[in-house]
Design brief:
The chain has seven helices and eight strands, in the order E-H-E-H-H-E-H-E-H-E-E-H-E-H-E. The chain is an alpha/beta fold. The protein has an eight-stranded mixed beta sheet with strand order 3-4-2-1-5-7-8-6, with helices on both faces. The two termini are 19 Å apart.
Length: 261
């Protein structure tokens, strides 16, 4: 991997972070997250956002609740319906800050670096052009054409792939918990710093996912550890915590910091 760029960061926003308990988009929370992103941009000028939430937004538009037996086609339908409301909300809040954002929908095939037509390079060139013109990319997996067998898996992995592609030093995974916990029952037992080479963080991992998302803490920690091993700085933080969002960029990022330093 080439030298990481200190001016480049990827922020992944989980479904549970930007949806209410009823499964609707939480526009107030989205506004606060955009405020935090703007503060980070003062020191890390090239920011890319990877967002979940399209399927949840689609269900809300169609006044449907999530079911355990949803088919692939149903989830793809919800994603199709929800992309518009999700992107409109981001567009509204970023424009209020004077920032133009652009939607980028990707599939695993777009990260192919070995076979023609080499979409990886096309995606990279497009993202670079957006950043060059101060357009903030808002990225999501293209659920409407992906299948269970071919999906990237979750947007934690997608965020890591984007970070590698763009040589981003900073990777922030916003979730609905305070970070990696020593004790799951104690939300304040956050492990503040993890060296993925010397610390046995796996002992604290548990299976399962967040309420509305498809990724879990195990996925986030594995992604964060991989990024740190490549020389990056990765953070798992609570995007539903007002204080965390207010401190972003100015007082650091509260949560669990994965780093070799």
């Amino acid at each position: 991997m080439d030298q990481l760029r200190d001016d480049t960061g990827v922020i992944k926003i989980g479904t549970d972070v930007i949806t209410t308990s009823e499964g609707h988009l939480d526009r107030q929370r989205m506004r606060q997250i955009v405020d935090g992103i703007m503060r980070i941009r003062q020191s890390v000028s090239r920011i890319l956002v990877v967002t979940s939430g399209a399927m949840a937004a689609g269900r809300a538009e169609m006044r449907q609740s999530r079911r355990a037996d949803e088919t692939v086609s149903e989830r793809q339908m919800y994603a199709s319906v929800g992309q518009g409301p999700l992107m409109n909300a981001y567009r509204h809040f970023f424009l209020n800050e004077g920032v133009v954002c652009g939607q980028v929908l990707l599939t695993p095939a777009d990260f192919n670096i070995t076979k023609p037509p080499y979409p990886y390079k096309n995606v990279s060139n497009t993202l670079e052009e957006m950043l060059l013109h101060d357009v903030l990319p808002v990225i999501n997996e293209n659920d409407t054409v992906a299948t269970v067998e071919l999906t990237i898996g979750d947007n934690d992995r997608l965020a890591a792939s984007i970070a590698r592609m763009m040589q981003a030093r900073i990777l922030i995974l916003l979730t609905s918990v305070n970070g990696l916990l020593r004790t799951v029952e104690d939300p304040e037992s956050v492990i503040p710093k993890v060296n993925p080479v010397t610390d046995n963080f796996e002992q604290y991992l548990h299976s399962g996912t967040s309420g509305n998302g498809t990724g879990g803490m195990k996925s986030k920690c594995n992604v964060a550890a991989e990024h740190a091993k490549m020389g990056g700085e990765a953070y798992i933080a609570n995007g539903k915590n007002d204080q965390v969002l207010r401190r972003m960029g100015s007082e650091g990022i509260s949560g669990t910091h994965f780093s070799l330093r």
